[in-house]
Design a protein that fits this description.
Length: 449
């Protein structure tokens, strides 16, 4: 269909890197269909919210945005312009038709497994003004029919290799919003990796809700794990760095640990969420490991790659958590030593087993525990960065900074670095002598090669 005038769209992304990747793919499909992106929502013919359901705050934010979008849609209609409002992502999957009931201005609800149908469904709602809810889990791969070429917005490119989760931690919505574990084939991933490199990517960040459970189809129909996938991708010319996220401790096998010792492109950084340091809480969370198993695992990883930087997620105030449990988490943090971490107050999610447990922890207790935990983590992060002072680190520069002539990039340990340079450093790796360190970033000067 030939469009008379270019239509514009506005896309807002909430949640994790998987959503960022999905948004990039939707952007590419919309561009192929003749849409142009606008950052002025009031002028958009199509508004897509790519949503997150992980905590209550994230999900509620969507409804406040939708309220404002309804007013905007009404105002545009008074000027003779129509607006299609689409809700994608994990809130779409979890709430489906409830979304259009709660906010009738929404035209299209589309779950994360149905994005291959996005162009067709937008056209249908535009033509018929019908409200569409599409939350099926199709058997085939969601992006294989979106034949739009890959583009990169940064030298560090996301590449989804695995989706879904079979772990069913009792607090988590992901197994319901993203469905069962599914791994893409080596052939598809290699093709996409080559496209990304051709488009300027230097670093591949392999994504999956449970990425180290990867078991895709490899050569001759044989199933391969994440370590072998990384080895294959490291062989592609132009792939300078590889990372992967997010992993589960139970799926950290010997082959993957060995990959950290053997593959130079695999960066010495690992995000390995532990959630809690209390065995009682870990069991109630259905994490399938205890605190000492996690600490032993870290020791094995460190013996393969002694300088590896570690990161984790933590939940405080899971139902039944006592002061002693919270103390156990602080002990684990002190025993491991994290370079960075994310921490959250437990948020009861509808449909998950933990939401209906008795002994929900009061909000003020959660806040107090979160503060104590974050104080320890922040101190560790500050110390980790301080150890870089006076050293020289290879930095892959990803973008320009706010100051004129300033560039921002990352060390192998994922530390953010600011440095000034003449010319254009974006996409280049340069050695930086670190002159200043802070909790969340380093500064330095470009050193001779
Ligand atoms: N395996 C995925 C999990 C995504 S959720 C990944 O790690 O990327 C990311 C983090 O959100 C989890 O590790 C957990 O710490 C946190 N989280 C999940 N459900 C939560 C809930 N109900 N309340 C608070 N935090 C939660
Ligand atoms: Fe959620 Fe647990 Fe699966 Fe991570 S491993 S996505 S926390 S159920
Ligand atoms: Fe959120 Fe869905 Fe990611 S719930 S964290 S956007 S998988």
């Amino acid at each position: 269909m030939q469009r008379s005038k270019t239509k514009s769209y506005f896309l807002k992304t909430f949640g994790c890197q998987m959503n960022v990747y999905d948004s990039e793919r939707m952007t590419e499909a919309l561009a192929r269909d003749g849409y142009s992106e606008t950052d002025d929502v009031a002028h958009a013919d199509l508004v897509i919210l790519n949503t997150c359901h992980i905590r209550e705050k994230a999900a509620e934010k969507v409804y406040s945005d939708l309220g404002r979008l309804r007013d905007m849609k009404d105002a545009r209609r008074r000027n003779g312009k129509e607006t299609v409002i689409a809700v994608a992502g994990c809130v779409a999957q979890a709430e489906g038709r409830e979304i259009t009931t709660r906010q009738p201005a929404v035209d299209l609800v589309i779950g994360p497994q149905s994005y291959h149908r996005l162009p067709e469904l937008i056209a249908r709602t535009e033509n018929t003004r019908e409200r569409i809810v599409e939350t099926e889990f199709p058997g085939d791969e969601k992006f294989s029919s979106l034949k739009a070429p890959r583009r990169v917005s940064s030298p560090s490119a996301f590449l989804t290799v695995q989706e879904g989760c079979d772990k069913f931690c009792t607090f988590c919505v992901v197994p319901y919003t993203r469905g069962a574990e599914f791994s893409r084939s080596l052939a598809k991933i290699e093709t996409e990796a080559r496209e990304l490199v051709a488009a300027g990517a230097k670093e591949l960040v392999l994504l999956g809700q449970n990425v180290n459970a990867y078991h895709g189809e490899g050569p001759a129909g044989r199933s391969i794990g994440l370590a072998e996938l990384i080895r294959r991708l490291a062989d592609i010319d132009g792939v300078e760095r590889i990372r992967y996220t997010t992993s589960h401790p139970r799926d950290m096998d010997d082959d993957l640990i060995a990959a950290h010792a053997d593959i130079p492109q695999l960066m010495p950084f690992l995000h390995l969420p532990v959630q809690s340091g209390s065995d009682r809480m870990l069991a109630a969370m259905n994490r399938k490991h205890n605190a000492s198993e996690y600490i032993d695992l870290i020791a094995r990883i460190r013996s393969a790659r002694p300088d590896i930087a570690l990161s984790s997620d933590f939940i405080v105030g899971f139902p039944g958590e006592t002061d002693a449990d919270a103390e156990d988490t602080l002990s684990l943090i002190r025993a491991v030593g994290f370079a960075q971490a994310f921490s959250f107050k437990y948020s009861p999610r509808p449909g998950t087993p933990a939401a209906t447990l008795d002994a929900q922890v009061p909000e003020d207790v959660k806040s107090e525990r979160l503060q104590r935990l974050q104080a320890v983590l922040e101190e560790q992060q500050t110390d980790f960065n301080a150890r870089s002072l006076g050293g020289v680190v290879p930095v892959l520069f990803e973008r320009r900074g706010r100051q004129p002539g300033e560039f921002v990039g990352r060390t192998p340990y994922l530390q953010l670095v600011h440095a000034a340079a003449e010319g254009d450093l974006v996409g280049r790796t340069a050695n930086v002598a670190v002159t200043e360190t802070r909790r969340v970033s380093l500064s330095g000067v470009i050193a001779a090669a």
